């Protein structure tokens, strides 16, 4: 990634990458048993679901901004 | 009693990895007397090679033995590995390309090289290098233990 003059447009998208930090770094958000998904407690499937969300967000930032 | 399936799988992968190793040694050969050829493959790894390299870094004895072992022993505590991996990648995505470009431009090979040039302190660079070595020790110990299992 080479520094480009139009950094302003890119930095807006970069804020999307903060969302996983907010969701993941405060366990009381997801330290719950229900709702279950195919029998898996919320605590477990929620974290695994964020793998997909974060990958999507990162891809989005890459294709929009980089 | 020999388990023929397991033996066949072992021999197949042993031969595959050995052959790949010798082929890879000849592929895009660099001058190994240069430190950035020896340590960083001349900074010539592309996206695909780096992707496999990251996979090799992440899916190790740590992932297959240490973390499941911790989950088995302590339960949900072992799930620290999931949020940790999730938030590491956005950080890497933002910081590393810039870091890579700066290091390539100035020819830095290790993080300590970067720190010494950026902050002008050899002491800080030494501390960074020592921290890196110390922090790698538990992981090496873990991987050695993982090979036995």
Structural notes for this entry:
The complex is a heterodimer of chains A (66) and B (149). The model of chain A has no long low-confidence stretch (mean pLDDT 80). The N and C termini of chain A lie close together (7 Å). Chain A has helices at residues 7-14, 19-24, 42-65. Chain A has three helices and no strands. Chain A is mainly α. Chain A has a domain at 29-66. With 149 residues, chain B is an all-alpha fold. Chain B has two domains: 1-30; 43-148, no CATH class. In chain B, 79% of the residues lie in helices and 0% in strands. Chain B is built from seven helices and no strands. Chain B is globular and about 65 Å long. Chain B starts with a helix and ends with a helix. The A-B interface holds A 1-3, 14, 17, 20-21, 24-25, 43-44, 47-48, 50-51, 54-55, 57-58, 61-62 and B 76, 79, 82-83, 85-87, 89-90, 93-94, 97-98, 101.
Distance between the termini of chain B: 20 Å
Structural class of chain B: mainly alpha
Percentage of residues assigned to helices of chain A: 55-70%
Radius of gyration of chain A: 16 Å
Q: What is the H/E string of chain B?
A: HHHHHHH
Number of strands of chain A: 0
Q: What radius of gyration of chain B results from the CA coordinates?
A: 19 Å
What count of domains describes the coordinates of chain B? 2
Shape of chain B: globular
In short:
The complex is a heterodimer of chains A (66) and B (149). Chain A has 66 residues and is mainly alpha-helical. Chain A contains 3 helices and no strands.
Write the layout of secondary structure elements.
The complex is a heterodimer of chains A (66) and B (149).
Chain A: H1 7-14, H2 19-24, H3 42-65
Chain B: H1 4-26, H2 35-40, H3 47-58, H4 61-74, H5 81-106, H6 111-119, H7 122-148
Descriptive labels:
heterodimer; A: 66 residues; mainly alpha; B: 149 residues; 2 domains; 7 helices; globular
């Amino acid at each position: 990634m080479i520094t480009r003059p139009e950094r302003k447009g890119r930095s807006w998208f970069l804020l999307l990458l903060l969302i996983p930090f907010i969701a993941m770094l405060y366990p009381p958000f997801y330290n719950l048993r229900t709702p279950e998904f195919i029998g898996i407690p919320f605590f477990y499937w929620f974290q695994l679901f964020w793998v997909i969300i974060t990958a999507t967000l990162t891809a989005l930032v890459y294709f929009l901004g980089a | 009693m020999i388990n023929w399936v397991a033996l066949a799988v072992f021999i197949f992968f042993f031969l595959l990895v050995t052959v790949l190793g010798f082929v890879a040694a000849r592929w895009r050969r660099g001058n190994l007397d240069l430190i950035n050829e020896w340590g960083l493959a001349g900074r010539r790894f592309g996206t695909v090679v780096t992707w496999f390299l990251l996979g090799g870094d992440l899916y190790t004895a740590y992932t297959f033995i240490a973390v499941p072992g911790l989950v088995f022993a302590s339960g949900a505590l072992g799930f620290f590995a999931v949020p940790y991996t999730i938030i590491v990648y956005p950080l890497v995505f933002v910081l590393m390309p810039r870091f890579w470009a700066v290091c390539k431009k100035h020819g830095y090979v290790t993080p300590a090289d970067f720190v010494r040039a950026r902050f002008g302190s050899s002491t800080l660079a030494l501390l960074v290098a020592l921290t890196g070595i110390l922090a790698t020790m538990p992981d090496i110990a873990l991987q050695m233990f993982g090979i036995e299992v």
